[in-house]
Specification:
The complex is a heterotrimer of chains A (279), B (283) and C (253).
Chain A: H1 2-38, H2 44-48, E1 51-52, E2 57-58, H3 61-92, H4 97-111, H5 114-128, H6 135-159, H7 163-171, H8 176-205, H9 208-214, H10 231-240, H11 245-277
Antiparallel strand pairs in A: 1-2
Helix pairs in contact in A: 1-11, 3-6, 3-8, 3-10, 4-6, 5-6, 5-9, 6-8, 6-9, 7-8, 8-11, 10-11
Chain B: H1 2-16, H2 19-42, H3 44-49, E1 53-54, E2 59-60, H4 63-94, H5 97-110, H6 115-133, H7 141-165, H8 169-177, H9 182-193, H10 195-211, H11 214-219, H12 237-245, H13 250-282
Antiparallel strand pairs in B: 1-2
Helix pairs in contact in B: 2-13, 4-7, 4-10, 6-7, 7-10, 8-9, 10-13, 12-13
Chain C: E1 5-16, E2 19-30, E3 34-38, H1 45-52, E4 62-70, E5 73-74, H2 82-88, E6 89-92, H3 103-113, H4 119-132, H5 136-139, H6 152-164, E7 170-174, H7 182-195, E8 200-204, H8 208-214, E9 217-222, E10 225-231, H9 232-237, H10 242-248
Parallel strand pairs in C: 3-8, 3-9, 6-7, 7-8
Antiparallel strand pairs in C: 1-2, 1-4, 4-5, 9-10
Helix pairs in contact in C: 3-4, 3-6, 4-6, 6-7
Classes of the chains: A mainly alpha (279), B mainly alpha (283), C alpha/beta (253).
Chain lengths: 279, 283, 253
């Protein structure tokens, strides 16, 4: 009887371990596949030259620029709104109907798929607000998309600042905003930065919301109203239109590396932040 | 003199705090504004129940796409949920500390891979495999289900791990004290206790699968027809919007927004279920 | 009315979430002396202290009635400028709480908020307050290193110096030595004895022996009620109330 139970356990653990291994292997395979076929294409020329012939030849520089500027712009818009919301929720109100409403709204916003963001951005920013396919329309759309992430991570970071810091600040004659600006936010900074990096990672990998708002122009944007292409969009077009499989692999490699880099840094920051908090 | 500044700051923050609600409202209003009139003028019942989608002829029926979305999502659940939950159970209950500490972030990291890359792998690796060994065009329900399943796996695993980790150790210890093996304590006690959290994880994964666009466009085949076998190519609601939006005008465009409305409602329903399940679990 | 009373409390009642925690307290705190507040845990000592600098405003569900005056400031009035009040009534908390800044910035935090910007003036303030807290010699060469690296006793003296940097009239201390070793405790007591000539000091303490060592006046609170107050010698040698006697003798705690 006991032997049967031990056997059952051994089989179960083996199955579970096998499933986990399968999951890990599949994900690693994807990584290896893309990098092995793509990295050899990635040279300095590839990165910094302009594309020729719709991307059939040449480099990916404008798309690279696009993938840096667009997420940055989106975060610049979302950061004050997100941190401001978090500060308001954590420091300026007590829990009640209003805060629950805001939180529910934020959770709903977080669940909306990117194609609907693209649709909204297209009809609202591109058409109704008359921005056309532009960096600005794309940045605003992406900003709304990552707003819930920034609100959530910022609020958590702010709430984990010890209450005693606030008490000390107030007892020394600071007002509420002075306490927030000089003590709470600086202490919450690592957590906030983590949220920012996670958001940047998400923007870099995003395609559906970007294509319909920032357009597909393969040029370096000179103004906020210029259309701009990101690496993800460029990759999608190269692959789907069959323009150049080689360059597609190369673009994919750069894209994957960029996203992994951003996410690794943010996880590293998050762990440092948690470790410091638990000291 | 400090106080006027303070009041101003508080007022500004109060306005800013509504930005997420305002965005949600805007999104809901504008998508519904463009899509709902179409449903009234062309008939919602016809829209939802006809499987004929022919913009040139003015025929707009999304039944085939709704079925496609549901089938592909269900398939993604079949692939992703068992693997995700199994992985979560293994990492949280049986694996040594260091294994869990390495694998959990590694899997979450890999989840950051953009969806277009997943789709690409599907096209270049999985679709030919299916075509050569199972038949059909390769780009199919099966291909989309597998790719989507792998994409939602990290989400399901991550949230399931949180659910399992929040089961108090006393539950496990109690079962062990009664003579159960670790596996028995897990499947008889812990899994039951974490059930609503795991359900929430799966439902959230489903929500992501239903909303996924780019990967699905690349691997599902994009033919508008109700699938009979898993080797048939299909077009989901999301793919429909993305493929045709670029060149749609007039009634065609309105129909795509109406598709967006349908998608929106499905997602909200799924998220509502997930949040409800998580709240029940938290009690 | 005692003319040299710095703090005058009349009929102070305080509630937290509907429960009454201070019952009809009437008390004069004399200027330029050390007044200790003793009593078992839960008697309202901390609430009393925090009422004086309106720190209880941070507590949800707190309300107070009665009259509290620090010199000419009506503390409980809604028109009271709380920021200005807190500059005149400083507080040292039970556990040392250095802000995650350098030693210099910790001390300059309050003065900067009050509008003092010139470097020389700030350095002056920092040096004076560190000397008054008996910490100057130990940290004068590392003013710009993090305050988190100081030992517990040093951190608490830093917190005292931080309060003194505001040039307050009143210094409130809420069990400041509870986490400290005997040597650090002695240093703080030494500093307080030096400071009482310039400041009005109110010290909440669980340690009756500390109260006996250091204070001029003692206040005994029990379950929110002011049982007895008077010169420390008298309270400890011949208390008027039997409850005071029992507490002071250690019969309950």
């Amino acid at each position: 009887m006991r032997v049967r139970r031990q056997l059952e356990q051994a089989v179960a653990v083996a199955a579970l371990g096998g499933a986990t291994l399968l999951a890990v292997v599949v994900l690693i395979f994807i990584l290896v596949f893309v990098l092995s076929k793509g990295l050899r294409i990635v040279t300095l020329d590839f990165l910094f030259q302009a594309p020729r012939d719709m991307g059939r030849a040449g480099g990916i520089f404008p798309a690279l620029v696009g993938s840096i500027i667009l997420p940055l712009a989106a975060v610049c818009i979302a950061l004050p709104a997100g941190v401001g919301t978090a500060v308001y929720l954590a420091e300026y109100t007590a829990e009640g109907r209003l805060t629950r409403l805001i939180r529910t709204g934020t959770d709903c916003l977080a669940g909306i798929p990117s194609i609907l963001f693209g649709l909204f951005g297209f009809i609202f920013f591109v058409t109704v607000m008359g921005m056309g396919w532009s960096l600005l329309a794309g940045a605003l759309t992406l900003a709304i998309m990552v707003l819930p992430t920034i609100i959530r991570t910022s609020e958590e970071a702010i709430r984990s600042v010890p209450r005693s810091y606030r008490e000390v600040s107030y007892s020394l004659g600071a007002t509420r905003w002075e306490t927030v600006w000089k003590v709470v936010l600086p202490s919450a900074l690592p957590g906030i930065v983590t949220g920012v990096m996670l958001s940047v990672g998400r923007c870099v990998g995003e395609t559906a919301a970007v294509i319909f708002t920032a357009g597909v122009a393969l040029r370096i944007p000179m103004s906020a109203f210029d259309s701009v292409r990101t690496l993800a969009v460029h990759f999608y077009i190269l692959a789907r239109e069959g323009i150049s499989m080689e360059n597609a692999y190369g673009t994919a490699a750069v894209l994957v590396l960029a996203v992994l880099l951003v996410n690794t840094v943010s996880y590293g920051l998050m762990h440092r932040f948690i470790a410091r908090r638990e000291r | 003199m400090k106080w006027s500044g303070e009041h101003a700051v508080a007022a500004v923050l109060r306005v800013i705090a509504f930005s997420s609600l305002a965005s949600l409202l805007l999104i809901t209003i504008f998508i519904f504004k463009e899509g709902v009139p179409f449903l009234f003028s062309h008939g919602a019942a016809h829209f939802l129940l006809s499987s004929r989608w022919d913009p040139m002829a003015g025929e707009f029926g999304v039944l085939a796409m709704i079925v496609a979305s549901l089938v592909v999502t269900f398939g993604a659940m079949v692939v992703g949920a068992p693997l995700g939950i199994a992985g979560a159970v293994f990492l949280n209950e049986f694996a040594p500390r260091w294994v869990a500490r390495v694998l959990k972030p590694a899997i979450e990291l890999l989840a950051g891979i953009p969806s277009v890359v997943f789709g690409f792998i599907g096209v270049m690796v999985l679709a030919p495999l299916i075509r050569n060994h199972l038949g059909g065009p390769g780009l199919s329900v099966l291909c989309a289900s597998v790719i989507l399943g792998v994409m939602i796996l990290p989400t399901v695993m991550s949230i399931s791990i949180d659910a399992l980790a929040s089961v108090p150790n006393s539950f496990r210890e109690g079962a062990l004290a009664l003579g159960a093996t670790r596996w028995q304590s897990v499947h008889m006690v812990v899994l039951k206790a974490a059930r609503s959290g795991i359900v929430a994880a799966v439902v959230l994964g489903l929500g992501r699968a239903v909303g996924e666009t780019m990967a699905v466009i690349m691997v599902a085949g994009n033919t508008v027809r109700i699938p009979i076998s898993i080797l048939d190519p299909v077009r989901t609601l999301t793919a429909n919007i993305a493929i045709e939006m670029g060149h749609a005008t007039g009634a065609h465009r309105d129909a795509l927004f109406a598709t967006g409305v349908v998608l929106f409602l499905i997602i909200m329903a799924l998220n509502g279920i997930a949040l409800g399940a998580m709240k029940r679990g938290a009690r | 009315m005692n003319r040299s009373a710095k703090i005058r409390i009349r009929n102070l009642n305080a509630d937290i979430g509907g429960a009454r925690v201070l019952k009809n307290i009437t008390l004069d705190v004399p200027a330029c002396s050390i007044t200790s507040v003793i009593g078992p845990a839960g008697s309202g000592k901390t609430v009393l202290l925090r009422t004086l600098n309106r720190l209880n405003d941070l507590l949800p569900g707190f309300s107070a009635s009665g009259e509290v005056r620090v010199d000419d400031i009506d503390v409980l009035s809604p028109e009271c400028d709380v920021v200005a009040l807190r500059r005149r009534v400083g507080m040292v908390f039970a556990l040392p709480v250095p802000l995650p800044l350098s030693i210099f910035d910790n001390l300059a935090y309050g003065p900067r908020l009050a509008g003092i910007r010139q470097r020389e003036r700030l350095y002056e303030i920092v040096e004076d307050s560190l000397k008054a807290a008996f910490l100057w010699e130990e940290v004068k060469d590392r003013l710009h290193t993090s305050a988190m690296r100081l030992s517990g006793g040093q951190q608490q003296r830093l917190c005292l110096a931080r309060v003194l940097a505001m040039a307050p009239d009143v210094v409130l201390l809420d069990e400041p030595c509870s986490g400290l070793d005997p040597i650090s405790t002695a240093r703080i007591e030494e500093a307080l004895t030096e400071l009482k000539s310039r400041y009005t000091i109110m010290l909440v303490t669980n340690n009756t022996k500390q109260a006996a060592r250091v204070s001029d006046t003692t206040v005994f609170l029990l379950m929110g009620e002011l049982v007895e107050t008077g010169p420390t010698d008298r309270i400890f040698i011949k208390p008027a109330d039997p409850r005071t006697d029992a507490y002071v003798m250690g019969k309950f705690g």
